[in-house]
Task: inverse folding
């Protein structure tokens, strides 16, 4: 199992061995989430919920099925999704009068109602989100967590009085994205997508991409809708000065791709490596005993398990009747951040051995220190592990983020390439064709233009980022 | 708004005023969950998750869409659902080769894979659950939380080596049901459904019903499947003695009807009354001030808010610019368990006034007591409130649970009627027709037979329960 030599094969194998999903469900692109994978996803959801609440978003749930009539109101949007929506056309023995689509995203479910909710500037800003299943009939090759047909999806929708206020919200959304990515130690780059690749109906789109296996993976997206949707759906309000205006809107989306990123960015040839913040199991206790010591060691393991559990640490004891070596191997594949070994020596010395998954480091922890304040002690180690994971991932990411010198280099090396650009759309598209790479857009938030356009040689005005992408 | 005189109208009005859902979604029977309702549902889910984990169930997520081919494997089951499933027949511009149904429940999604997971007795018991959206094309009149077309649904599925082991699991499931119902102070009765009303494919079905507005509401169901499904889906295992056997299965279901029960059982003419265990807001602080005292009182409110929040209490401050009376009214409608008032007098005396929603009782709490251990103090009041709510609901429930003396009484009174029964199916069905009531089944777990069958006069062998039902 080698991540370097064949990422795709490695990715599938890591997932297979980590018990996160079962791919044998008889519909293409729809997988069964097993407890190991689903609990990881739910832990990520919990983290997101906490952050959304802190930033004054409220959680809602809109129906899955959207009437064709509502969907048809926004033309740009339909064009973007028409080829990939599932349609419910029958119920029981009846053909439905109005066909219902399974949401690919919820603009067209939400916005007709927003126009009822919003009447006055005092109703603004409106800031909501939901965590739901969405559906896209992907025609490209499917890949677990990365390209699936039923997607575990997060979507935030906001309405504002002014374009500026919507712009400010986008900064907040970037702030939340940063916190979520940091919590799972995932580095990323924010690009403003080119106009021809923005979200259907958006004024502009920001893509948040991480990098794994030589390709970028979009793990989040933020859109400035301006008044495009509000005009189509009649979301207007009476402003302070008595005039009626259409609201300005933004959206922010993430998905189960966050799990895909954890697999692809952190994993190694032994298997998964899961960030402690979201790992379904943070510490696995492995008792090591023979017939004489069995009872004593099992009791000590039980005691420690109960103690850690009661302090809110997600802990397991592996007391299966297999060799310690097999247990080590098993939990390494699953990516549990810390293994804690309890054997005869450990009990006698009052000192446990822990093994840290990400860097294979062994440490010894005094039992007395654990007893004193287990939560604090382990929280500190978790923070440290997160930092190590981030540092490792960031180094890899930075190494792959290359200032392009020529097209030859772009074709030979694996990476994301910053390319000097004159500002002409033709140059941008032409470079996409020449390199066979995808244009992620312009670097968002900072302009590093210097020198000359890599294609035409005119003065550079901005930086484009190109990469192969999932 | 009178619960007594017109329950249906009252129920709709309470929901309307409590901001739990928006009914204006343009598909019949599909409502929008607003933050107030959705957070209540999520809190119930959290409680259920905690209990399921304690009883060694693992959480999974199976795809929503089920191929027609899998669905067709269990004939009884299809017969029961065929008239009420939604079908996805198209994706993009293509007709699907194999039609996909939107799960009405997940037996036919899960069991083909169970046959892969289960090979040996060492794979048993298998105990999983999921919390998902399910779909039923209801033709009867829809009612918020009670009869909807997209249902927020909980389903547990287990597989066992023997019928006895499956029977034991049913006792565990009843235990969990009891804990969930207790947590939301809802009284209920368990009946074994008559054979002609059991779940499609089950050996027998237990219905868990509460009572509100003169009708029973099924809030949970537990099914013994025996080997009916395992034979259809080939779920077999090699037993200790080397023989191959089909697994024995149970399921346990609950849904958003738990929210419906909270509304209908606890609510009063002022509005909702939400159990503190699951209320999105447990304590609302209402500052009462004039221009002179405004700053001081707002600061005190803020201080208390931060304190309670930091101790894990779900608390809000209502600092809107409306009269205290309007605020009181507003939070009463929403059913927040405790209102805490802070005015000039309260600050001076170091003593806050609280008002308990369920019985309108006023109390005074010393600020110093709150500061000392806010979590303990409020937890105790929450427990007390839960107990009062349960007692009140149980009295009402017991009063409505009537030993039927004759059919006339059953037609005149509102209630659930225990009827002596000879054991003949014809008598049971005939009484259903005569009274216009639904037969819930036989009282489960205790036999109170005495005297004579209410219809034919032969010796009573068991008790039947009849009621009008939602």
Result:
């Amino acid at each position: 199992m080698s991540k370097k030599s064949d990422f795709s094969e490695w990715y599938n194998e890591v997932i297979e061995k980590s018990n996160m999903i079962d791919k044998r469900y008889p519909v293409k692109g729809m997988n069964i989430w097993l407890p190991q994978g689903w609990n990881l996803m739910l832990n990520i959801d919990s983290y997101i919920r906490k952050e959304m609440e802190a930033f004054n978003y409220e959680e809602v749930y809109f129906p899955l099925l959207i009437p064709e009539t509502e969907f048809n109101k926004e033309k740009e949007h339909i064009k973007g999704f028409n080829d990939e929506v599932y349609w419910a056309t029958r119920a029981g023995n009846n053909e439905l009068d109005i066909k219902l689509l399974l949401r690919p995203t919820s603009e067209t479910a939400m916005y007709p109602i927003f126009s009822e909710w919003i009447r006055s500037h005092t109703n603004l800003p409106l800031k909501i989100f939901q965590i739901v299943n969405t559906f896209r009939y992907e025609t490209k090759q499917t890949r677990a967590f990365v390209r699936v047909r039923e997607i575990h999806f997060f979507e935030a929708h906001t309405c504002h009085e002014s374009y500026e206020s919507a712009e400010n919200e986008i900064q907040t959304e970037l702030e939340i994205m940063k916190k979520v990515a940091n919590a799972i130690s995932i580095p990323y780059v924010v690009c403003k997508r080119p106009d021809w690749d923005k979200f259907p109906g958006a004024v502009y789109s920001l893509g948040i991409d991480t990098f794994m296996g030589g390709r970028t993976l979009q793990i989040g997206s933020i859109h400035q809708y301006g008044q495009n949707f509000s005009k189509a759906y009649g979301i207007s309000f009476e402003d302070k000065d008595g005039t009626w205006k259409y609201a300005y809107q933004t959206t922010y989306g993430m998905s189960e791709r966050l799990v895909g990123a954890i697999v692809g960015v952190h994993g190694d040839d032994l298997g998964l490596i899961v960030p402690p913040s979201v790992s379904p199991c943070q510490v696995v206790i492995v008792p090591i005993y023979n017939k004489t010591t069995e009872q004593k060691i099992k009791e000590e393991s039980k005691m420690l398990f109960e103690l850690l559990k009661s302090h809110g640490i997600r802990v397991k004891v592996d007391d299966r009747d297999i060799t310690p070596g097999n247990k080590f191997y098993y939990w390494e594949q699953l990516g549990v951040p810390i293994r804690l070994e309890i054997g005869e020596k450990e009990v006698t010395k009052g000192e446990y051995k822990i093994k840290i998954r990400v860097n294979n480091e062994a440490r010894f922890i005094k039992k007395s220190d654990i007893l004193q304040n287990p939560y604090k002690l382990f929280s500190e180690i978790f923070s440290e592990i997160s930092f190590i994971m981030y540092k490792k991932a960031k180094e890899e990411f930075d190494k792959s983020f290359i200032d392009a010198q020529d097209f030859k280099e772009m074709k030979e090396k694996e990476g994301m390439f910053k390319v000097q650009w004159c500002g002409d759309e033709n140059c941008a598209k032409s470079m996409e064709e020449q390199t066979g790479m995808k244009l992620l857009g312009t670097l968002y938030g900072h302009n590093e233009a210097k020198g000359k356009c890599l294609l035409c040689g005119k003065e550079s005005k901005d930086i484009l980022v190109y990469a192969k992408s999932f």
The first strand of chain B starts at residue 21 and ends at 22. Chain B has three domains: 7-266, 283-384, 403-467.
